[in-house]
Amino acid sequence: MIFEYCRFVLPAIAIIVLLGCCSSLFHKRPKTKTVAFLVNTKTNDAIPLHYWETSIGRSSSCDIVLDYPTVSRFHAVISRRKNTWIVSDTGSKTHVFLNEEKVDKRSKLNDGDEIRFGDASYYFSAPDFGDQVDAEYFPALVSQNNGKVFYIENDSCMIGRDPKSDVYLNISTVSRKHAEIFMDDGHWYLKNYSSNGVYINDKVMLDTRRLKAGDVLDIGGAKIIFEER
Asked: Which CDD domains does the record cross-reference, listed alphabetically (predicted)?
């Protein structure tokens, strides 16, 4: 009797726990209505962008998956900064080209621009959304290692090897309490707690520095792009 009860109840509990985990994974992903499109230059097929921060690559974990051999697993990110669209190269091997010019880390996007990720070419189409972006968008940390995006919804964000950290980095060269990103007087700063320091744009930092959009952070070998609203 007890065995039969457990046979049905335990799988049900497992499913509930799994759904709860999935819910927590997507909790920090502020989704909007369609905010822009990537239109294939050859087929005219349109891919909608549903986020103010959209990862693009060959990996199935990207928001937009491009199954091309010349596209890197985590190739690029398209994001909205106040009233400006930005395309950022997240360390791809074949680069990002905007109107046939290579993008050096990041570049401003305009409606009608042609973007090429490896051999995948698209027109960028975006209507004017005015000021509603500020209410929808959170600053973000974009991993160059795996393309994951973490949204900073509060005024501070702890990064470290401690599983309780807001951004958990399970890397031996990362300290348990390695660094903190926090807001002060309307600006974002990074404070270092580790003897190993943090590299910002390839320069070591051992104290506190103000961050700007596009800064590349190297935290114990984990490379992360700071994207500010």
From this structure: FHA
Among 78, 219, 67, which Cα is nearest to 140's?
78
Range of the domain at 158: 139-228
Looking at the 3D structure of the chain, how many domains does it have?
2
Question: Structure pTM?
Answer: 0.53
- Residue ranges in the chain whose pLDDT is less than 50: 2-3, 5, 9-10, 13-28, 129-136
The answer to the question of residue 59 being in a domain is yes
Q: Dihedral sign, CA of 93, 97, 103, 106?
A: negative
- Binning the chain into helix, strand and coil, the percentages to the nearest 5 are 15, 40, 45
pLDDT digits (tens, 9 = 90+) for 43-81: 877 788 877 788 999 998 888 999 999 999 999 999 887
- Yes or no: say if 226 and 188 are a contact pair by the CB < 8 Å rule: yes
Closest CA to 173 of 215, 131, 221: 221
d(CA 177, CA 78): 30
Q: How far is CA 82 from CA 18, 90, 112, 154, in A?
A: 36, 21, 19, 18
Same domain (yes/no): 44, 120: yes
